[in-house]
Inverse folding.
């Protein structure tokens, strides 16, 4: 594991963030195996060309994301994958280019199928008047984009994200709120892939929207379930 990192002393990015990214990518790719002790402070400082302060900040950041664990007289160990915080947007960004895209999105889709239909059902039941107005405005924008002669992919991705974020925000259940915030990075990359492969799926969004606006819990849940099932075709096309 010695000398696997290059000096970043001339980097314009915050040094500790750059170091954290490089170490994280080594962990995520398996270059630094789970359970292994990473090189010591002196070795890493020399390889990266940084101070101990910058390195310790990087290690602290990676520890907060569940990737590393430091123990006195033992060193800093790579934590087992089951403890990594995959809901962290920064961790998702660091994974770019070192994971199988289709496999990752398939796993994320499976996760969405487990939680989003119930979020839609709760939104149908609990959304406030203001939240329903906001959702209506977002859906209207979706219709306008879909009707345009040429689809604005980036515009659609942005409004599609907002549509699903609003649903999580409208559940009336605080435990759903993080999925409207923390997962934005994942949603953006996921929708970019799905939209380019499978279009807008406006009618499926319409069914979800109309069920929520009508307060029909069962219909909202089923519309979301069908939408997420159809997305598997977009991801494998």
């Amino acid at each position: 594991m010695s000398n696997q990192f290059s000096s970043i002393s001339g980097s314009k990015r915050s040094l500790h963030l750059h170091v954290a990214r490089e170490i994280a990518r080594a962990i995520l790719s398996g270059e630094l195996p789970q359970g292994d002790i990473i090189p010591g402070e002196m070795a890493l400082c020399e390889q990266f060309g940084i101070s101990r302060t910058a390195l310790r900040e990087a290690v602290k950041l990676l520890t907060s994301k569940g990737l590393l664990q430091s123990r006195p007289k033992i060193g800093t160990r790579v934590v087992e994958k089951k403890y990594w915080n995959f809901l962290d947007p920064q961790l998702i960004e660091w994974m770019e280019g070192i994971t199988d895209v289709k496999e990752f999105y398939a796993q994320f889709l499976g996760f969405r199928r487990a939680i989003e239909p119930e979020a839609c059902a709760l939104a149908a039941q609990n959304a406030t008047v203001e939240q329903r107005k906001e959702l209506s405005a977002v859906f209207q924008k979706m219709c306008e984009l879909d009707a345009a002669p040429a689809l604005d992919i980036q515009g659609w991705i942005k409004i599609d994200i907002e549509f699903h974020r609003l649903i999580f925000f409208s559940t009336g259940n605080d435990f759903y709120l993080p999925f409207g915030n923390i997962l934005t990075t994942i949603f953006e990359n996921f929708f970019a892939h799905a939209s380019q492969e499978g279009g807008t799926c406006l009618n499926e969004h319409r069914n979800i929207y109309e069920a929520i606006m009508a307060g029909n819990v069962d219909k909202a849940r089923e519309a979301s379930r069908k939408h997420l099932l159809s997305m598997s075709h977009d991801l494998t096309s």
